# Entry
Amino acid sequence: MRPVQLADLETAARVVAASPARQAMIAKLCAQADQADAYRIAQGKPHPQFGNGTLMSAALKYDESVARGPCNKGFLRSLAALCTYLADNHTS
# Structure
């Protein structure tokens, strides 16, 4: 996965907040971003499904996400869970 920016966190957290299985969605998004980044490095172009290796590009392929706007509890909890997962599993 490429270095995570604030926009990556917001976009991914909105997808996670819309998912009934939040932890599983976090792991899935991160795995897809990892796969896309490895593909980008090896092939010199974005992964056809998961994008350019950013967390945002992996998240943008999902239609289901909570709407942009005020940060509600579900979004904030999803953002916190995502940040915790990244801190524990994707430090770079």
About this structure: DSSP finds four helices and no strands in the chain.
